[in-house]
């Protein structure tokens, strides 16, 4: 049994922490809103009063927080978790954050003798509940080996993609693809509607051809039903596309469609839709086309 401190029990973190309990680990969870520790406690885990409390004596600490500044605030600094963790222990940051921040966490960890792995995920809330997440891990070989048994309790596709920060770079590519494909699905649905085609039937046949994708399978039905409860919030995808555009610029790479998607996602948020699922890009295509209820 491993003692695991788990910080950030939101949409993703809560079911991931529960799966760690089910796998036989002793899990001590902390969340800023204390009520969110309830699913963990109900499954046999424990609640901590502070992040430091959760990290004290833990073999492994996992963070699943919204954004880079949240992870920096909790992990780094004079009172940061790295100062509370024992040498030889392991920090796994599973949040989606900037690759350069992930590199900084690993450097600081190395200085203190703590293994650090960046291990962002894809697969959404359902993947977190079912422990079928796709996990892209960055870190040195020893850190990854130490993390693997813990990651296996939360995901079904786990790949060591490279050194510190590489996991976040792969996750950024994931968000670039997901955002762009949702936008094209949204445009296709509005296009089909304008031509009076039965969209259910269209989606059925499209899903079997080259245009078939996990996004069409998982998002089209909700889009047709105009059900935009997240899921993955526009606010978070906006954050991720900021990471993508900055990292592309830094590397000197052109991402014209990605930049356009980032702009559209930002506009959707500015229109007050930040709390909706990212498939709400449909609302904007409808609006631009003078159609729908948006
Ligand atoms: P969320 O907002 O539901 O959860 C984040 C949790 O962290 C909240 O419960 C919040 O109270 C807590 N929190 C924030 N700051 C804190 C702090 N300083 N100390 C302690 N707790 C704090 O977000 P989520 O959907 O669970 O996403 C978490 C991360 O996973 C994000 O980086 C997101 O981009 C990524 N992600 C989300 C999904 C998804 O489908 N929701 C999928 C893949 C990756």
From TrEMBL:
<dbReference type="GO" id="GO:0008679">
    <property type="term" value="F:2-hydroxy-3-oxopropionate reductase activity"/>
</dbReference>
<dbReference type="InterPro" id="IPR036291">
    <property type="entry name" value="NAD(P)-bd_dom_sf"/>
</dbReference>
<feature type="domain" description="3-hydroxyisobutyrate dehydrogenase-like NAD-binding">
    <location>
        <begin position="165"/>
        <end position="282"/>
    </location>
</feature>
<feature type="active site">
    <location>
        <position position="171"/>
    </location>
</feature>
<protein>
    <submittedName>
        <fullName>2-hydroxy-3-oxopropionate reductase</fullName>
        <ecNumber>1.1.1.60</ecNumber>
    </submittedName>
</protein>
<feature type="domain" description="6-phosphogluconate dehydrogenase NADP-binding">
    <location>
        <begin position="3"/>
        <end position="162"/>
    </location>
</feature>
<dbReference type="GO" id="GO:0050661">
    <property type="term" value="F:NADP binding"/>
</dbReference>
<dbReference type="GO" id="GO:0051287">
    <property type="term" value="F:NAD binding"/>
</dbReference>
<dbReference type="InterPro" id="IPR029154">
    <property type="entry name" value="HIBADH-like_NADP-bd"/>
</dbReference>
<dbReference type="InterPro" id="IPR006398">
    <property type="entry name" value="Tartro_sem_red"/>
</dbReference>
<keyword id="KW-0520">NAD</keyword>
<dbReference type="InterPro" id="IPR015815">
    <property type="entry name" value="HIBADH-related"/>
</dbReference>
<keyword id="KW-0560">Oxidoreductase</keyword>
<dbReference type="Pfam" id="PF03446">
    <property type="entry name" value="NAD_binding_2"/>
</dbReference>
<dbReference type="Pfam" id="PF14833">
    <property type="entry name" value="NAD_binding_11"/>
</dbReference>
<dbReference type="InterPro" id="IPR006115">
    <property type="entry name" value="6PGDH_NADP-bd"/>
</dbReference>
<dbReference type="GO" id="GO:0016054">
    <property type="term" value="P:organic acid catabolic process"/>
</dbReference>
<comment type="similarity">
    <text>Belongs to the HIBADH-related family.</text>
</comment>
<dbReference type="GO" id="GO:0046487">
    <property type="term" value="P:glyoxylate metabolic process"/>
</dbReference>
<dbReference type="InterPro" id="IPR002204">
    <property type="entry name" value="3-OH-isobutyrate_DH-rel_CS"/>
</dbReference>
<dbReference type="InterPro" id="IPR013328">
    <property type="entry name" value="6PGD_dom2"/>
</dbReference>
<dbReference type="InterPro" id="IPR008927">
    <property type="entry name" value="6-PGluconate_DH-like_C_sf"/>
</dbReference>
């Amino acid at each position: 049994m491993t003692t695991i401190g788990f910080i950030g029990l939101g949409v993703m973190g809560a079911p991931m922490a529960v799966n760690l309990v089910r796998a036989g680990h002793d899990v001590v969870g902390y969340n800023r809103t204390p009520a969110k520790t309830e699913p963990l406690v109900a499954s046999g885990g424990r609640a901590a009063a502070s992040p430091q409390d959760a990290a004290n004596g833990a073999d492994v600490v996992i963070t699943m927080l919204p954004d880079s500044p949240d992870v920096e605030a909790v992990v780094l600094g004079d009172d940061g978790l790295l100062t509370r963790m024992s040498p030889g222990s392991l920090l796994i940051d599973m949040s989606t954050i900037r690759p350069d921040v992930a590199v900084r966490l690993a450097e600081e960890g190395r200085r203190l003798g703590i293994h650090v792995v960046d291990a962002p995920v894809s697969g959404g809330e359902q993947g977190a509940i079912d422990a079928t997440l796709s996990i892209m891990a960055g870190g040195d070989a020893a850190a990854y080996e130490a993390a693997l048994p813990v990651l296996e309790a939360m995901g079904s596709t786990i790949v060591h993609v490279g050194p510190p920060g590489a996991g976040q770079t792969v996750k950024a590519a994931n968000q670039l693809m997901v955002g762009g494909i949702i936008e094209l699905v949204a445009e296709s649905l509005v296009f089909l509607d304008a031509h009076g085609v039965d969209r259910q039937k269209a989606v059925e046949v499209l899903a079997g051809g080259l245009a078939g994708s996990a996004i069409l399978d998982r998002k089209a039905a909700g889009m047709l039903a105009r059900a935009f409860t997240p899921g993955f919030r526009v606010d978070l995808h906006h954050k991720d596309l900021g990471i993508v555009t900055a990292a592309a610029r830094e590397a000197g790479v052109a991402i014209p469609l990605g930049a356009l998607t980032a702009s559209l996602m930002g506009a959707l948020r500015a229109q007050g839709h930040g709390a909706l699922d990212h498939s709400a890009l449909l609302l904007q295509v409808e609006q631009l086309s003078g159609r729908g209820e948006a």
